[in-house]
Specification:
It is a single chain. By secondary structure, this protein is α+β, with helices and mostly antiparallel strands. It has one domain (3-112). The chain is 50% helix and 14% strand. The protein contains four helices and three strands, in the order H-E-H-E-E-H-H. The protein has helices spanning 3-16, 28-31, 57-69, 80-110, and strands at residues 21-24, 38-43, 46-52.
Length: 124
Amino acid sequence: MELARLYQELSALLERLDVPVRCEAFDSRLFGDLATRGGLCTLHGKRVVLVDARQALVERVAVLAQAAARLDTETVFVAPAVREAIRVYAREANDARNDDQDRVRLRLIRGGSDDDFDLGGDGG
């Protein structure tokens, strides 16, 4: 499935789950280096997915798929290709979250900062 179509399918899925998608250019004064791509959040008591419009399409697809992975999608029809994308991006999000948790644990154990060591497996 083409990325543009996958983005549309994921957006439509989220809308069916009553989670609107807002694709807007993020303000660098709020997000600094703009490493934040967006994601599922609660705004005024309602779930919404915020997506940085300046990100590449593949990054915007990742945000939507990761958001969908956090929701119950079993109650609605999801095309097999879309479900597979959700599964893949959910695994990537979990891996990244685990890496972040490991980094925090090591920093607490060693009493240092992230710059003091490298978790990349190269012996650092």
